[in-house]
Amino acid sequence: MRGIARLVVTRFIVTVHGWPVHDTSPLDEPPFPRYNTSSIQDDAEQALSGHAGGALEDKMSITPIGRRLPDDSRQKITTASLQERKLRHEPITCLTAYDYATARLVDESAIDMVLVGDSLAQTMLGYDNTLSVTMDEMLHHAKAVRRGVKNALLLADMPYGSYQADPTEAIRNATRFVKEGGAEVVKIEGGEKRTDLIRRIIDAEIPLAGHIGLTPQSVNVMGGYKVQGKDLGAIEQLMRDAVALDRAGVACLFLEGIPREVAAMSTAEVGTPTIGIGAGPECDGQVLVFHDIVNLTFGPPAKFVRRYGDAAALITHAVQAFRADVKSHQYPSDEESYHLPRETRAALETVLERKRAMRR
To answer: Whole-prediction pTM value?
Structure first.
């Protein structure tokens, strides 16, 4: 899984940056059980049929996960870094992550921004949409991702219901994402109607990302996941939203599910970096859901999704191979088993020989 994840993230980066993409195919030890004394001889004789312990006998049976340290050869991405990249016309890369392992692989692949998206409601928790995920669930995943990310800028979605009703509660929840979840930027959905709230959160020293266009938390109002900004009135509203959020001071602006032409206009109009998802190539950066690019979403992808690998096939093959090896007694092998030290083995053999002699 580590190999395919690193490969597909690298291919996502070079695609966003406009580099050529070559067609690379993806693809303390547990205590001993108590023995019944009546069976010790049978068990011991079976153990004695193996080889004596070697250098690997001290290895733990559970694979350790190494500590994640910052990569000093890479620049730590900040909100100021995003602004610099917009000015230099250098594309910004962003992927979602919801757990330590994925976050670490994404960060080590030099992605600029890692988003703990409320899409984890579907990808990780199996909900039908993003509306059901809670603050506690979002914070749980944000903490795990924080431990895996050292160089990328870490953003977190504020879930539905955590900021819409009460500005004071919204600031309190945004603060939790920073203090408890380790987020460096929080993201909320909505256009110019959110500007007062955005300013209050920013006044609380919390950088904020905006999100306009197709806003999944408004799915019931929109009547489904539909492309936004397709007529002149809707285009005018999107432009007002973009300008209003830019003036309110958002660190970046996510544009989702809008026509390419409208995204290009918005990107040219605002000073803050725009991050597109289903919004065409003129945005300052691009974001995709990690599970989409590795085929772990169990359904047909959206038009804008490009799949860079097939983790579903890889995982299925690995699980089926494990099952087959266990069923056929091919796993574990002797090399994958622990053995007694030579001295203990010899002493045990002497004890068992005496027991056998007493039975004669």
So the answer is: 0.83
